Here is the input.
Amino acid sequence: MARSFVWVVYSEHLLLWSELNFLGVLLVFMCSFTHAMVLNPTEVAIAVQMLLDGHSQREVARIAGVSQSVVAQTWRRYQKTGQFTRRPGQGRPRCTTDADERYLRLLALRNRRGTATRFQTEFQLATGQRVSTPTIRNRLHNDTMNARRPATGPILTRAHRIQRLEFTENHPNWEMRDWESVLFTNESRFHLSSCD
Here is the structure.
């Protein structure tokens, strides 16, 4: 059987596949496999060489942590083009440019409490381009900007503030042992015997 050679780049070390022990390669490269729908060029090179060495697509998919259809598509692409990389321009084109995404990030930084719907409106007014709110959320997620609900504290009325002030004025010299019998509840009510 004619044996093909594949050069694999890993952490700036050029390795000849045939010079490596197969199990050693699996241990080294299993960490590089991601659980994604697309394999990067290094992972494609490993998968193709495993297929050339006689491993089944199902076995390669299990090791790579992807579905068998991903391996099949990768193998067909390699047989057709002879390359490990995807052709540029595959997939649906993005509706936003890098400049648009920077502007969305700027909008989110300017207004931390803004919603995706509000950013969508402001973005459309500024650029004239209509983008869906899930797209806005996805672009902000890519920039590690996730939505958060603002923390809320107890609503303190004037009477609460007066009671707190009176308590501190009545107990200025308390020591640690005095505070051990105090339960702070932030004005929450607790009923041990029945519901409200």
